[in-house]
């Protein structure tokens, strides 16, 4: 069996993505070979490619995929050949025809969830679950501002928060994307720049501000997010779509009313198998029950991953982006 993988030979734009051959060797003891049928594209992939999160070169790309167990190594009995699974990996490398992985990080897929949906929702959905329950511990009746609300993580946050009774104020980059967020359950859906965002949020909350901000945008939204929070509110900064947040002083949090700030990494919240399985069960139940609609906004062949990166960074996509080997 032969195939290929995509790597970044140097740090830079999408043009640095290159193809390398893969030749199958016997599966190592304790490992499982997953033949990929759909691969998720995420902003973290662009950070690995650009060097924002530097890796040794050539840098493998991709941390999420779905597929079929092709073979199991000696000593593996929890997973069988032929099972459909998805996964997120702490070490990149899912932009490939297959991957050899530890079985305890694989998630067996329910029949109701297709490979494409799983590839588009596993990392984003586990991120949403982590942000809502692990970080925010937000309760029904509280309020939240969600940035990039029509994007992959944003649209899952809006739906999940609305489903548990949180008042959602969404923010997107265009009226069209704002309409999508409104249709997903946002009580108020704003669009445009960030200069007037805090004033709009405060007007909508009677001057109080929101309890939590979910911010995956980064540099461009930073000040607007902080200024949208109530005293002792929580800022969850989980992405850098517009670039990394500039240096700041903790006194900035004090001056705004003793704010809390966290910069979470999803892997720290699903470090054990029990944590991973519980989070995945919650996610798959929400999808299976129809409470989370997962949109695949763009599907491309694996060989066109560079084009997927261009679309993601230009913020021209809605929902999830997937690659098909």
Helical residue percent band: 25-40%
**CATH architecture label name of the largest domain:** Alpha-Beta Complex
Overall shape: it is globular
At CATH level 3, the topology of the largest domain is: Quinone Oxidoreductase, Chain A, domain 1
Distance between the termini: 14 Å
List keywords for this structure.
10 helices, 7-stranded mixed β-sheet, 2 domains, Quinone Oxidoreductase, Chain A, domain 1, 325 residues, 30% helix, alpha/beta, Rossmann fold
Write the layout of secondary structure elements.
Layout: E1 2-8, E2 17-23, E3 32-41, H1 43-50, E4 59-60, E5 64-72, E6 84-88, E7 98-101, E8 107-108, H2 115-136, E9 143-146, H3 152-163, E10 167-172, H4 175-183, E11 188-191, H5 197-204, E12 210-215, H6 222-227, E13 229-237, H7 251-255, E14 260-262, H8 266-269, H9 273-288, E15 296-301, H10 305-313, E16 320-324
Helix pairs in contact: 2-3, 2-9
């Amino acid at each position: 069996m032969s195939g290929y993988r995509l790597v970044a030979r140097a740090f830079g734009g999408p043009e640095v993505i290159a193809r390398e051959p893969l030749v199958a060797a016997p599966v190592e003891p304790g490992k499982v070979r997953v033949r990929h049928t759909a691969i998720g594209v995420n902003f973290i992939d662009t950070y690995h490619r650009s060097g924002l999160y530097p890796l040794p070169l050539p840098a493998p790309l991709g941390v999420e995929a779905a597929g079929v167990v092709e073979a199991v190594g000696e000593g593996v009995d929890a997973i069988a050949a032929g099972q459909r699974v998805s996964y997120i990996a702490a070490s990149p490398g899912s932009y490939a025809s297959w991957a050899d992985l530890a079985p305890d990080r694989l998630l067996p897929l329910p029949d109701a969830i297709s490979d494409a949906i799983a590839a588009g929702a596993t990392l984003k959905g586990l991120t949403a679950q982590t942000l809502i329950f692990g970080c925010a511990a937000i309760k029904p009746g509280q309020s939240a501002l969600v940035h990039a609300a029509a994007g992959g993580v944003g649209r899952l946050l809006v739906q999940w928060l609305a489903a548990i009774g949180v008042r959602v104020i969404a923010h997107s980059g265009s009226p069209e994307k704002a309409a999508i967020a409104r249709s997903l359950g946002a009580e108020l859906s704003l669009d445009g720049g960030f200069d007037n965002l805090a004033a709009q949020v405060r007007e909508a909350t009677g001057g109080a501000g929101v309890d939590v901000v979910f911010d995956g945008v980064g540099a461009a939204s930073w000040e607007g997010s902080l200024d949208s929070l109530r005293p002792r509110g929580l800022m969850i900064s989980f992405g850098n779509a517009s670039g990394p947040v500039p240096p700041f002083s903790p006194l900035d949090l004090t001056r705004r009313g003793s704010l809390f700030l966290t910069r979470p990494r999803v892997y720290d919240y699903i470090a054990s198998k029990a944590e991973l399985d519980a989070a995945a069960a919650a996610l798959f139940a929400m999808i299976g029950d129809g409470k989370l609609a997962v949109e695949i906004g763009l599907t491309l062949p694996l060989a066109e991953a560079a084009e997927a990166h261009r679309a993601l960074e230009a913020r021209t996509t809605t929902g999830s982006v997937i690659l098909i080997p």
